[in-house]
Amino acid sequence: MSDLLGSIAGGLGQGSIYALLAVGFVMIYKAMGVISFAQPAFMMAGALLVTYLAPEIGFFLAVPVAAIAIAGVSLVVERVAIRPMVGKAVFVIAIITIGIDVIVRTVAGAFIGRDPRPIGDPWGNATVSIGSVTVYERHIAAFIVAAVLVAALFAFFRWTPIGLAMRASALDQEAAMAQGVSVGAVFAVSWGLAGALATVAGVFAASNTGGTMDRNLWLVALAALPVIILGGLDSFGGAVLGGLIIGVVQRVVGDYHREWFPFLDTNLFLITPYLVMFVVLLVRPYGLFGTKEVERV
Amino acid sequence: MRPPWGRPELYSDYKQDMALFDTRSKALGTAVLLVVAALLPLMTPDDLLAILYTGLVLAIGAIGLNLVTGYAGQVSLGHAFFVGVGAYTAAVISGDPDARRLGYGIEFVPLWLLGAGAVAAVFGAIVAPLATRLRGLYLAVVTLGLVFIGQYFFREFREMSGGAEQSRGAAEPVLFGMNLTDGGAFTEEQKLFWFGLVLLVIFGVLARNIARSRVGRAFQAIRDRDVAAGVMGVNLTRYKVIAFTISSFYAGVCGALLYAGIGSFTPEEFGLLMSIQFIAIVLIGGVATISGTIMGAMLIAMLPRIAEELPAFVPFLSTSASESPNVFQFQEVMYGVLIVAFLLFEPRGLFGIWHRIRIYWKSFPFSY
């Protein structure tokens, strides 16, 4: 039983990473109606920057600096490649973000080199015992950081003028524009914030894979795509909850798949998020909390 | 009736408007192009022919993606999965029965080619009902999931693939008792090029005919406004299933042929990068055009070669994979750069460029 609880605790840690990424995806989706496939690349670039900065200025300073830097990169990308395409078909913009992902990922990959780079996190493999359950410190840290950031974001949307502008333009872009909301600024803020969140998620994802990062780190961010589909593309609550669900299911499957499916050798947990997504979509085509699209003639 | 030469884009009857070659110059141009392509192997070095063969085969697969994404408007990131299904099916049907990997030893080309297409099409038809419930970006992410699940099962099905990072022999093209990959009067590359060319012409004309028939018009109606298409009496579910099935068939055929020159492949080939490569071909060539897709496929197939030649001109680029920046990174970056650049500056792709040149000369003294 404590094994299962340990799996669930680990899953919550992993799920926090997914939740951070998914919130970034949802933020861009609500602003422009597009899934940004560039998020995995920003996550990898952010984690990479931390590996370079951490030995110089310390881990805890490196993370915010890298997050701000990646937010800057993400702003530039939005301004140069995405803004001219506003108003074009959604899938065209989505495919542009795929192109950007390939570019950023390859350029970042060139700086990784052959060996995995240590992220320099202070947690390592240290564990804490809560009752009979052993939990990794890094999972607790990920969970706390994700909780704080998500709460801060919700407060930001609720109480700041730009947060209000973002909610308004997500609801109805033209009406928001007519009321004097600068939709361009909303796009910029969404992309910047999503880039920063991706960086933080990347740091925890790297600390989860043994405290190092390599070129495969971006695959973690792809596993966050089923999360937003599961939660519904336009729901922040759904993104957070979906992230935790996927994280827990993935970890439990990862820990028990050899008992349940002895005939499968390869790590089943790698594709668990996609399998969960398929099952959920068969039942609810718009995810758990997504708004059903209204068709009118 | 078609006037002797006719004014371009002046259609005097419906039949001419819908014809495969609506003007005589187009028919003539295509014929000249085909003759040149058929004679090409006699005067082109073999290493270049091998690249061109890859281009021809990629074109077949990309035409399939263009049918579902360009014509029917259903964004699919899962094309690599269907290519993989085709590649493994063909390899299993034609594989050596005594070898370690699964194989039935049926080497007759049409059989494994159509078999690969058919099995991929069945998978397409299985996925399609899920796709018909979803729209737009939901569909894109679900098909992306398909690539990962597919790769997992290619790795897991050890009797077939040999497991992760293990290669197995590809299907061998044996026609009339002659293995095209053996030497002889003509080299392997020459024979493969002709083989690919014939198949591309068959599948290209077939796709063009699908596109200009009732089915193709239904696809385009769904792409432009699915609700309106439904109201007009287009059965959405049925035509989306047809689109996915045909597209997967093309992908399967492409997969069966893709490794004939190299001779082997691993499960890792059929990843997201391959899907992106196909998307790039469709976008660079031109969405909803068959001839553009072929141009795009040729360009993407040439990309590794172009990258290889580049260090001679750009000294800081290295040819060794362990140094950066190297040509492999350049090649990968180019996929992204080409996708972004074409979408920003030339949304109709290579076909759009060709179209503009054509219009310029057509209205020559008064072109502006």
Task: Identify the notable features of this structure and list them briefly.
heterodimer; A: 297 residues; mainly alpha; two-stranded antiparallel sheet; two-stranded antiparallel ribbon; 4% strand; B: 368 residues
- Tally of individual helices of chain A: 12
* Proportion of strand residues of chain A: under 5%
Summed over residues and divided by their number, the pLDDT of chain B gives a mean of 85
**What's the Cα radius of gyration of chain A?**
19 Å
Helix content of chain A: over 70%
The mean pLDDT of chain A is: 86
Largest sheet of chain B: 2 strands, antiparallel
Note the overall shape of chain A: globular
SSE arrangement of chain B, N to C? HHHHHHHEEEHHHHEHHHH
N→C terminal distance of chain A: 55 Å
Q: Helix/strand-derived class of chain A?
A: mainly alpha
Strand order of the largest sheet of chain A: 1-4
H-E order of chain A? HHHHEEEHHHHEHHHH
By DSSP, the count of extended strands of chain B is 4
**What summary fits the major beta sheet of chain A?**
2 strands, antiparallel
First-to-last CA distance of chain B: 31 Å
The neighbouring-strand order within the major sheet of chain B is 1-4
Number of discrete helical segments of chain B = 15
Describe the protein.
The complex is a heterodimer of chains A (297) and B (368). Chain A contains 12 helices and 4 strands; from the N terminus they run ααααβββααααβαααα. Chain A has 297 residues and is mainly alpha-helical. In chain A, strand 2 (127-130) and strand 3 (133-136) form a beta hairpin. In chain A, helix 2 (39-57) packs antiparallel against helix 3 (59-82) and helix 3 (59-82) crosses helix 8 (183-208). The model of chain A has no long low-confidence stretch (mean pLDDT 86). Chain B has 15 helices and 4 strands.
